[in-house]
User: Fold this.
Amino acid sequence: MPHATDVTRNGPGVEQRWALFHRWGPYVLLGTGTVLAAFTAAPLGMSRAEVYACGVLVVAALVLQLWWERASRGAEGPTRTSMVYFAVRMAIGFALTWMNPLFAFQVAVNYWDTGRLLPKRLVVPGLLAAAATVAGSQSGGLPPDGPTGWLVFLGLMAVNLGLLLLFSHLACLEEDRARTQAATIAELERTNTALQQALDENAALHSQLLVQAREAGVADERRRLAAEIHDTLAQGLTGIIAQLQVAANTPDPAAGRDRLDRALALARESLGEARRSVHNLAPVALNDGGLPGALRRTVVEWGERSGVKTEFTVTGTAEPLHDEMAATLLRIAQEALANTARHAGASRTGVTLSFMGDEVTLDIRDDGQGFDPLAVPAHTSAGGFGLDGMRARAERVAGSLTVESEPRGGTAVSARVPLVRHDP
Assistant:
C-alpha cells in the first residue's frame, strides 16, 4: 500500500498538469494550426473563399471552446453535452484540415481527451475520426489523390490508429492507477477518521473509568472504615459495657476494681485500634507474635469476658502472613466471636487456624442455639455488619467465607484466604 504522503504528493501533481493541458491545450493547438495555415495559404493554393471560411471556422472553434469552459464546470465523466462538444469540435477540425492540412494540429487535441468526453462505446469511433483526419493531413491533404495517395493515407491512418489505441490503453492504466490512489487516499482518510474517533472514545472511556475508579475507591474506603469501626469501637464498647455492668453488680470491691481495670484497658485498646483503622494500619494485636499469637490472645480474652470455655488450635506450619491477610482473619475471628457471645448462648467455642499449602483457613465453631443462615439479614439488629461483613472482608483479599448452622445445632464459620507471605 503506498504511503499516504507519497500518494498525495505525486497524484495531485499529475492531475494538475493534465488539468492545465485540458484547459489551455485546445487554444495552443488551435493557435499553432492557425499561424501555420496563414503562412502556407498561398503556397498551398487556398482560394480567398477558403481563407474566409477558415477564419470563420477558427472563430467558431474559439467560441466553442469558451462555451465549453463554462458548460463543463462541475461536470464529471462523459455527458450528453460533452458528446455534442466533441462532435462539433471534430467537425470544425475536419473542415479546417480539408482546406489546409496544417490545421490538423487542432484535431490532435482529440487524442488526449476522447476518453474524457465520450462514453466507452464511442471512444474507438472518436479516435478513428481523429486518426483519419490527421492521416489525411500527413498524406498531403484530403481527399487523397489517386490510388497511391489512398494507400499512403490508409497506411498512415493504421499507424496513427495503432498509436492512439496504445496511448489510450496506457491512459486507461494511468487512470486506473489514479483511481486506485484516490481510493487509497480516501480509505486512509476514513481509517484516520475512525482511528481518531476511537482515540476520542478511548479518552472518554478512560476518563469515565477514572471517575468510576475514584467512586469505587471512595465507596470501598467507606466500607472499610465502617467495618473497622464496627470491629473496634462497637466491639470494644460492648466489652466495656459488659465489664462495667459486672463491676456495678458485684459486692466485692476487689472484683469490681478488677472489672474496672479491664474496662479501662479495653477502652484504651479500642481507641488505639480506631486510630490505626483510620490510618489503614494492621491491628495492634498483630505486632507481637503475628496472627497465631494475636488470635490466641483474642480467644483467651474473649473467653474471660464471656465466660464461655474456649480452645484455640494451630495446625500445619505457621508462616508469617501479609499484614492484609492477617488483619482480615483476625477481624473475622473477632466478629464471629462477638456474634457468638451476642446471639449463640454457647457453652463451648473452638477456634482453629490451619496452614494448608497455598491457603490459610480459620474455623470458629460453637455449640450454641444455631440459626438459619438464609434468614439472617444483611445487618444485625445491633447495627453491625454480621455475616455479610465477614464475607466481604474475605472476598476483598480473594478469599471466601462459608457458614454452616441450623437451629439448636451450633454454628461453624470457615474463612479461607490465599497464603500470601509477609513482605520482608
User: Anything to note?
Assistant: The CA atoms of residues 4 and 189 lie 9 Å apart. Confidence is low (pLDDT under 50) at residues 1-11, 380-384. The radius of gyration is 51 Å. The first strand starts at residue 309 and ends at 315.
